[in-house]
Design goal:
144 residues
Amino acid sequence: MNLKNIVLWLFIGLIIIGLFNLFNPNSNNTANTLDLTYSQFIENVQTGSVNDVTIRGNNITGNFSDGRKFKTYAVNDPSLVEKLTNMGVNISAAPLDDGYPSILGILISWFPMLLLIGVWIFFMRQIKVAKVEPWDLENQKQNY
């Protein structure tokens, strides 16, 4: 094998590993996150066991005092921030996702089409090298 083939196989291997890690459901540590109801969340705030929260729209994620993570969905409660500040909870707010796909999302969605185009170009070049027209079936049968 020459260096070009080794580099190609390394590149293909890295792409496969990257795609596996991208689509691995346990890679973003959601397995260790407790899913609380809003009532359970408010009870934990009132007992003082909530350390910090991040509010993103109606989604609330945070950490307990013992380090465990949680998430919940907030109802329309205008006094929520007041309850959190009264109990000494660190509050951080983040904007909602804007809904536009990221560059990675665009590349992933276009990858199959680009792969098909690349394979098609590869085969067309191979046919051109063999000096056979792909639509000339009579000459292809005579050559075999």
